[in-house]
């Protein structure tokens, strides 16, 4: 889809677009946390976060009205596609490459069905989603998108919203578990801004400008992304020969920059291994000392275009976690972190969630209440 100008993405992730996505993002997160809290067993946070970000992409970014059962099946197919997308190109019956091809074919078939239903069903729409903007942009440039281009564009948007956001969401939950004082400070900020009252979110309080004004919440998300950047780095092509530390890098070479190593070695960060959201506070300047010490979304003209959506999603998740859930680690110790293919706990992070009432008291399920009454 090389015809797409950058202004299409600027529309998809503009302030106005994010504002229209926010209520839908909030609903998806709330539904998910209610499901987690109603589960009598612990959940695998990383796996469930993948489901959550996939659902967000399908329901919010693309505006597809796929029934939950079909959505679950589509998620399983998508996971199989992602797991095999980087397989060696060995076309044997049981190879990962062949599995990836079959998954992609099944995925595109499901997406085509959803796109056709969306194009035929335009009533009851109260906002323009990313796919709407993509279609309209094509028309503005005198190009009616083919079904294959729509499927490719849809797949790009899902891919962009899926793995890295699920990784960061898992890291956020782990750090809130490890640092209850951070969670309480976050709740205090929500109370002071009139967002959280008597343990529940005030109706209509979550506006984009309000969220952007939550300074401590912004510090928490920044610190999660500093310490647990989902991807290790990025590739670039050298446009002009230059010298770095006495070495000449010729024009045309491919180079890789490491986000993780940059964060680990940047001299501006004190106690780099410590989770400390206050390092990004107004009293300290660790994120403002130098241009390229902090780059969780890359840097320069090719910085991640979806970074504002990702940060909004993480902030909305943190707010909902602070207001409607109590959660605790279901294992004796915190799991080891692996960096491949993205940062995530080796066991997925096993956590038990409990629903809360408006006074932050645990909500017992009907079975638990009956058992409690007989003791």
Rg for CA atoms: 22 Å
Strand order of the largest sheet: 1-11-8
So how many helices? 13
Portion of residues in helices? 40-55%
User: What is the H/E order?
Assistant: HHEHHHHHHEEHHEEEEHHEEEEH
- Sheet bearing the most strands, described? 3 strands, antiparallel
Task: Tell me the β content.
Answer: 5-15%
Structural class: mainly alpha
* First-to-last CA distance: 64 Å
* CA-based shape: globular
Mean pLDDT: 87
Given as residue ranges, the uncertain stretches (5+ residues, pLDDT < 50) are 357-361, 363-375
Find the count of extended strands (DSSP E, 2+ residues).
11
Which oligomeric form is depicted?
Answer: single chain
Keywords: Endoplasmic reticulum, Heme, Iron, Lipid metabolism, Membrane, Metal-binding, Microsome, Monooxygenase, Oxidoreductase
Family: Belongs to the cytochrome P450 family.
Subcellular location: Endoplasmic reticulum membrane; Microsome membrane
InterPro entries: Cyt_P450 (IPR001128), Cyt_P450_CS (IPR017972), Cyt_P450_E_grp-IV (IPR002403), Cyt_P450_sf (IPR036396)
Brief synopsis:
The chain is mainly alpha-helical.
């Amino acid at each position: 889809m090389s015809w797409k100008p950058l202004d299409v993405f600027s529309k998809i992730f503009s302030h106005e677009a994010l504002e229209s996505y926010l209520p839908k993002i909030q609903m998806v997160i709330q539904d998910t946390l209610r499901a987690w809290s109603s589960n009598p067993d612990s959940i695998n946070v990383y796996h469930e976060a993948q489901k959550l970000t996939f659902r967000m992409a399908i329901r919010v970014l693309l505006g597809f009205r796929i029934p939950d059962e079909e959505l679950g099946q589509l998620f399983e197919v998508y996971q199989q596609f992602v797991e095999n997308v980087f397989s060696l190109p060995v076309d044997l019956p049981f190879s990962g490459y062949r599995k990836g091809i079959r998954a992609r074919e099944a995925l595109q078939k499901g997406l085509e069905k959803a796109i056709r239903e969306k194009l035929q069903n335009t009533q009851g729409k109260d906002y323009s989603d990313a796919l709407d903007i993509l279609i309209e942009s094509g028309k503005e440039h005198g190009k009616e998108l083919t079904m294959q281009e729509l499927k490719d564009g849809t797949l790009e948007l899902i891919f962009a919203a899926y793995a890295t956001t699920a990784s960061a969401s898992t890291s956020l939950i782990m750090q809130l578990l490890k640092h209850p004082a951070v969670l309480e400070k976050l709740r205090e900020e929500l109370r002071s801004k009139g967002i959280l009252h008597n343990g529940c979110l005030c109706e209509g309080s979550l506006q984009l400008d309000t969220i952007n004004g939550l300074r401590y919440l912004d510090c928490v998300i920044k610190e999660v992304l500093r310490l647990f950047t989902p991807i290790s780095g990025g590739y670039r092509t050298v446009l002009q020969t230059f010298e770095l530390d006495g070495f000449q890098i010729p024009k045309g070479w491919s180079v890789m920059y490491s986000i993780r190593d940059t964060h680990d070695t940047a001299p501006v960060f004190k106690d780099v291994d410590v989770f400390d959201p206050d390092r990004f506070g107004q009293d300290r300047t660790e994120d403002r000392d130098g241009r390229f010490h902090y780059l969780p979304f890359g840097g320069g003209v090719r910085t991640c275009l979806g970074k504002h959506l990702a940060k909004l999603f993480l902030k909305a998740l943190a707010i909902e976690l602070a207001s409607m859930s109590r959660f605790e680690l279901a294992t004796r110790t915190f799991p080891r972190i692996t960096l491949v293919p993205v940062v995530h706990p080796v066991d997925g992070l096993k956590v038990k969630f409990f629903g809360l009432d408006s006074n932050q008291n645990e909500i017992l399920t009907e079975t638990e209440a009956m058992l409690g009454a007989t003791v």
